[in-house]
Amino acid sequence: MPQETYYKDHWVEIEPDRLDRYEAQFAWGARGNRLIDGADIRVGHVVADYGCGPGFLSVELARRVGPGGQVQAFDVNADFVARTESKLAAEGFAPRSAVTHLQGDMLPLEDNSLDRLIIKNVMCYVDDPLASLREFRRVVKPGGKVHAIDSDFYMAAFDPISPLDWRHVLDAAIHAFRTPEIGRRLYGLALAAGYGEVAVEVIAGPDTTGRMFNFIQNMAGYAREGGNHDEAIVQRVLVQSKRAVEDGTFFAVNPQFLVTATV
Ligand SMILES: C[S@@+](CC[C@H](N)C(=O)[O-])C[C@H]1O[C@@H](n2cnc3c(N)ncnc32)[C@H](O)[C@@H]1O
Predict the structure, then answer these.
(1) Residues contacting residue 262 through CB under 8 Å, at least 6 positions apart
(2) What's the pTM value of the predicted model, to 2 decimals?
(3) For a substitution probing ligand 1, which of 9, 11, 72 has the most ligand atoms within 8 Å of its CB?
(4) Which domains, and CATH codes, for the chain?
(5) How far apart are CA 234 and CA 54, in angstroms?
(6) CA of 122 to the centre of ligand 1 (A)
(7) Residue 4 CA to ligand 1 centre (angstroms)
(8) Is the CB of 120 under 6 A from ligand 1?
(9) Residue 98, SS3?
(10) 160-191 pLDDT, tens per residue?
């Protein structure tokens, strides 16, 4: 059995091939812009990127805030901290950014110090999502916004993988998430955390290029590490999806829940 804190530990230590998959999976594009436009990031803003991963979002945020703004990126993984720093530096954004290796769920920031906090595909991993949303409310100024984006893993769908096979892999990999159904819960949690205004949107863009195959491979890895899986099913899911990516018939949808909460 994996450790009870596997959902966090598997981010602190990441195998090299999974690190490389994230570079492909989170590369920035039009889809990323649609996910963050609701955060209304403006020139001069001070913005946090919580759980920055490989750093593509931090670079986009640094572009949007301009030379008079600031991006503060945070992650629990040392490789991601280094990758984010080097991407920001390569774009010439080092003077307007800082990347911090986070040790816990509290932010080393003063009260009311940010205009925006963006957390993209990280809320499903934090120890206590309500406590995190309260912590974000502490560091964002009155009138500022917290913009959370996340999946609800029970709602992801794939073709040609059978729903029952996918559910088997998800159940066997569930220790990799603290709150796998976080998408549907974000709205209620933001209300419970005491924000003044909470807007919610769901974007369900199709993936026909195979970007989600990276995610399927990660899920197969988590299931295998857990050991509560049927290897024949995991193999079938991997083989069918790989073949579909190769012959151009792969289809996936993983709805993204966008919650914009105003302090
Ligand atoms: C799925 S990746 C998303 C990366 C990035 N936000 C993006 O969308 O490109 C999840 C990220 O959250 C980080 N993470 C996981 N648990 C965290 C926590 N409790 N606090 C901060 N970061 C965390 C991981 O190290 C990883 O970089």
Answers:
(1) 143, 144, 145, 195, 196, 197, 198
(2) 0.96
(3) 11
(4) 6-152+178-205+255-262 (3.40.50.150)
(5) 27
(6) 5
(7) 18
(8) yes
(9) strand
(10) 999 999 999 999 999 999 999 999 999 999 99
